[in-house]
């Protein structure tokens, strides 16, 4: 077991990037951004329709809304 409570050096020029990805140690400014990124490592940002992998959940959602857009157009075809 590894002690996970390590003091962070806030003098480090992280530019406010206080959240680290637990998979690749990439730093993020907000916890939600970090979480969203970690979903990529968990395979949750993979498009199930075309198997494309995105870096963020938002990117996948935008991809689905554009590339695989359901019939949301208010106009007819
Ligand atoms: Zn990562
Ligand atoms: Zn897709």
From TrEMBL:
GO terms for molecular function: zinc ion binding. InterPro entries: Znf_C2H2_sf, Znf_C2H2_type. The keyword DNA repair does not apply. Residues 19-46, 45-73 form the C2H2-type domain. Keywords: Metal-binding, Zinc, Zinc-finger. Transmembrane segments: none annotated. It comes from the Eukaryota. This is C2H2-type domain-containing protein. The lineage of its organism: Eukaryota, Metazoa, Ecdysozoa, Arthropoda, Hexapoda.
